[in-house]
Write a structure and sequence with these properties.
Elements lengths: L1 E5 L2 H9 L8 E3 L6 E8 L3 E16 L4 E14 L6 E2 L6 E2 L6 E16 H8 L3 E2 L6 E2 L6 H21 L4 H17 L1 E2 L2 E2 L10 H12 L7 H8 L3 H12 L3 H19 L7 H7 L5 H12 L3 H6 L1
Antiparallel strand pairs: 1-3, 2-4, 3-4, 4-8, 5-6, 5-7, 5-8, 9-12, 10-11
Helix pairs in contact: 2-4, 3-4, 5-6, 5-8, 8-9
Length: 308
């Protein structure tokens, strides 16, 4: 458990900025009665937090190896100021940008946050999607009323479980997964949905091929390499991919590499990295063709992803 509080602006910056890797934070009074409180409970896989302030705060935030969903119950807030800005509405969850620095602004607020570990989110994602290690959600579409209700219910249930059973219990473990599952109904995960029958025994060698492609995506691969890893002939491998995933193994590998590029672009410092460098790392050397593929897949040019 973490709990901090105080009545001065300097203390707020010292206490809060460090929790979010803040580098340029500013806080001020809105009247004479300035105060702040911050409480967090949970463990490394999931924590549930409450942040309150009678005052004003702005600054930059960066979270690594986590997915953070937050909402305000009172006050005013702006998220990702100056970029894909979100004006906070009471009770409506908003997803922090993943693996990049962004600016926030809040005034006289009561805020709730849920921090979910990257490994937990990806593990739950694998229940529904073909997961390749990248983590990306479509933040452009507001969550539905039903999804928000489900999310709030799963978080409230997790809090009750934490209080009654503790962090070492199986019930808490399952409550964490329930919250993570609700996340996938709030925002669309940028990953391919598992095809029908993918988990069946007859597709075991296909799964081995897919896992091999994910694990070795940064290496120069041939279709023969993949077939050998899955203990299939090249023809059988091609037929299995076409029948179940509706594409060839090498087309599937190219899509994996595109997602890896996007993940690296989101995490990179735009002053120290270039699109060409990152694209080349994943085997894309024809920049015009690559940019067109990237635009069709993600709805924006790679340079825009890097600059955000």
């Amino acid at each position: 458990m973490v709990a901090v509080s105080g009545t001065d602006t300097g203390g707020a910056i010292d206490d809060l900025a460090g929790m979010y890797a803040g580098r340029r934070w500013y806080s001020s009074r809105v009247d004479q009665d300035y105060w702040y409180r911050y409480v967090a409970v949970g463990d490394e896989q999931m924590s549930i937090r409450r942040s309150q302030m009678h005052g004003y705060l702005r600054g930059d935030v960066a979270v690594e190896d986590e997915v953070v969903v937050q909402w305000i119950d009172a006050g005013r807030g702006r998220l990702d100021v100056g970029h894909d800005e979100v004006q906070m509405q009471p009770g409506i969850p908003a997803l922090f940008p993943i693996e990049r620095r962004f600016d926030v602004e809040y005034e006289d607020w009561d805020q709730r946050l849920v921090h979910l570990g990257r490994d937990l989110v990806l593990d739950v994602a694998a229940e529904r999607h073909l997961v390749d290690g990248t983590l990306d959600f479509d933040r452009s579409v507001a969550p539905s009323t039903a999804a928000v209700q489900q999310w709030r219910g799963s978080v409230a249930g997790a809090v009750r479980t934490l209080r009654s059973e503790g962090t070492s219990s199986l019930a808490w473990h399952e409550a964490q997964r329930d919250v993570a599952r609700s996340l996938f109904d709030l925002y669309r995960f940028q990953g391919e949905t598992l095809p029908v029958g993918y988990g069946e025994r007859k597709n075991a060698r296909l799964r081995a091929a897919v896992e091999f492609l994910h694990e070795h995506a940064a290496e120069p691969l041939t279709v023969s390499d993949v077939a050998r890893a899955a203990d299939l002939s090249v023809r059988a491998l091609q037929e299995s991919f076409q029948r179940t995933l509706d594409r060839t193994p090498m087309n599937y590998l190219r899509e994996v590499r595109l997602r890896r590029v996007r993940n690296d672009l989101q995490r990179a410092d735009p002053t120290a990295a270039s699109v060409a460098q990152i694209a080349a790392r994943w085997g894309f050397t024809h920049m015009g063709r690559f940019s067109g593929e990237y635009l069709r897949r993600f709805g924006e040019y790679p340079r825009h992803t890097l600059r955000r």
